[in-house]
Amino acid sequence: MSLEDEFQRYFDSVGDGQDRCYLCRRSPKEVKLFFGFDEDGVPLKAAAHGIEDVVLEEMDIMSYRGPRPVCAVCQLNVDAISALGEEAIFRQVVARMRENRDDLWPGNSGS
């Protein structure tokens, strides 16, 4: 089986067959755009920011070696939550999303 077939089989097995982050559903192209790079790794507004000779060397902005692919944006968010020591708050937010998600939106009753 070719590498391309194996890659496609992996993504078919983890969901809808699309190469997207499991958490935020961003595609690799969208993640690169979030960080200010074009799909080929070249910065989009290099001249405006005075950036020279900067290219996204490592094109791996998605992790594929875990149970599900996760993008660099979500990984940074988890790092920030951890650095702030807010893991317990994060667990509370996830529990509310699971159990009382309607209470999290404006205009609804809740604490």
Tell me about this structure:
There is one protein chain. By secondary structure, the chain is mainly alpha-helical. Helices cover 42% and strands 4% of the residues. The protein is built from five helices and two strands, in the order αααββαα. It has a two-stranded antiparallel sheet. A hairpin with a 6-residue loop joins β1 and β2 (70-71). The mean pLDDT is 82.
Provide a compact summary of the structure.
With about 110 residues, the protein is mainly alpha-helical. It contains 5 helices and 2 strands, in the order H-H-H-E-E-H-H.
Ordered list of secondary-structure elements with their pairings:
Blueprint: H1 3-13, H2 28-34, H3 46-49, E1 62-63, E2 70-71, H4 72-83, H5 87-99
- The helical percent reads 40-55%
- Unreliable runs, pLDDT <50, ≥5 residues? none
> What oligomerization state is this entry in?
single chain
Q: How much beta, percentage-wise?
A: under 5%
Give keywords.
single chain; 111 residues; mainly alpha; two-stranded antiparallel sheet; 2 strands
